[in-house]
C-alpha cells in the first residue's frame, strides 16, 4: 500500500502526520513533486493559504498538485487546505492562486476579527450520531457550492463548514488538533476505495 501524503510546506502538517500515526496508517511529508508521485492520497493542512500558495509555486508543486487533483487523487483540505482546493476564494490577497478543483466559493477569515477562533459541536451525519467537536481558527466558510458538491456539515446559522466532491474532502475546521479521528478515517476509506 502506498502511504498517504501530507503537504508539508507550511502549517500544522505535523498534527496530521500524528493523526495518521494514531490510526496506524503510514503517512509521509510531501515537499517536492517526486514526493507527490508516491502517495495514494494527500492532506493539505491548516495554516496560511497565502503562504502555502507562494511556497507551492516556489517549489514547483503548484502544477503537479493541480494535475494530481485532476487525475482523481483523493485530497483532504483542512482550513487553509480547503482554501487551497477551492475554485474561487473571496477576500483572497492580491495575486493569491489556488490549486482548485473543488466547485465551491470559499471566503477567507469569514468570522472576522471579533471572533478569530471558537469551538463548537457539529452534526456530521456521514460520521455517525456523535457530534464532532470542531475548532475554528481564522476559518473560512463555504459560501456557495456547485452541483456536484455534497454538504457534510453546517453551523446552526446555515454556514457550510464541511464539503465533499468526488475525490475531494474539505473542512473549515481542524479535526487534527482535537483528537477527532473520524474525518481522517473517512478520508482513509476514500483513499482505499479508490485503490
Ligand atoms: N486564515 C487562514 C488562511 O487564509 C486559514 C487559517 C487556518 O488554516 N487555520 O489561509
From TrEMBL:
<comment type="function">
    <text>Catalyzes the hydrolysis of glutamine to glutamate and ammonia as part of the biosynthesis of pyridoxal 5'-phosphate. The resulting ammonia molecule is channeled to the active site of PdxS.</text>
</comment>
<dbReference type="GO" id="GO:0004359">
    <property type="term" value="F:glutaminase activity"/>
</dbReference>
<dbReference type="GO" id="GO:0036381">
    <property type="term" value="F:pyridoxal 5'-phosphate synthase (glutamine hydrolysing) activity"/>
</dbReference>
<keyword id="KW-0315">Glutamine amidotransferase</keyword>
<feature type="active site" description="Charge relay system">
    <location>
        <position position="174"/>
    </location>
</feature>
<feature type="active site" description="Nucleophile">
    <location>
        <position position="79"/>
    </location>
</feature>
<comment type="pathway">
    <text>Cofactor biosynthesis; pyridoxal 5'-phosphate biosynthesis.</text>
</comment>
<dbReference type="GO" id="GO:1903600">
    <property type="term" value="C:glutaminase complex"/>
</dbReference>
<keyword id="KW-0663">Pyridoxal phosphate</keyword>
<protein>
    <recommendedName>
        <fullName>Pyridoxal 5'-phosphate synthase subunit PdxT</fullName>
        <ecNumber>4.3.3.6</ecNumber>
        <ecNumber>3.5.1.2</ecNumber>
    </recommendedName>
</protein>
<keyword id="KW-0378">Hydrolase</keyword>
<feature type="binding site">
    <location>
        <begin position="137"/>
        <end position="138"/>
    </location>
    <ligand>
        <name>L-glutamine</name>
    </ligand>
</feature>
<dbReference type="InterPro" id="IPR002161">
    <property type="entry name" value="PdxT/SNO"/>
</dbReference>
<comment type="subunit">
    <text>In the presence of PdxS, forms a dodecamer of heterodimers. Only shows activity in the heterodimer.</text>
</comment>
<comment type="similarity">
    <text>Belongs to the glutaminase PdxT/SNO family.</text>
</comment>
<dbReference type="Pfam" id="PF01174">
    <property type="entry name" value="SNO"/>
</dbReference>
<feature type="binding site">
    <location>
        <begin position="47"/>
        <end position="49"/>
    </location>
    <ligand>
        <name>L-glutamine</name>
    </ligand>
</feature>
<dbReference type="GO" id="GO:0006543">
    <property type="term" value="P:L-glutamine catabolic process"/>
</dbReference>
<feature type="binding site">
    <location>
        <position position="108"/>
    </location>
    <ligand>
        <name>L-glutamine</name>
    </ligand>
</feature>
<dbReference type="GO" id="GO:0005829">
    <property type="term" value="C:cytosol"/>
</dbReference>
<dbReference type="GO" id="GO:0042823">
    <property type="term" value="P:pyridoxal phosphate biosynthetic process"/>
</dbReference>
<dbReference type="GO" id="GO:0008614">
    <property type="term" value="P:pyridoxine metabolic process"/>
</dbReference>
<feature type="active site" description="Charge relay system">
    <location>
        <position position="176"/>
    </location>
</feature>
<dbReference type="InterPro" id="IPR021196">
    <property type="entry name" value="PdxT/SNO_CS"/>
</dbReference>
<dbReference type="InterPro" id="IPR029062">
    <property type="entry name" value="Class_I_gatase-like"/>
</dbReference>
<keyword id="KW-0456">Lyase</keyword>
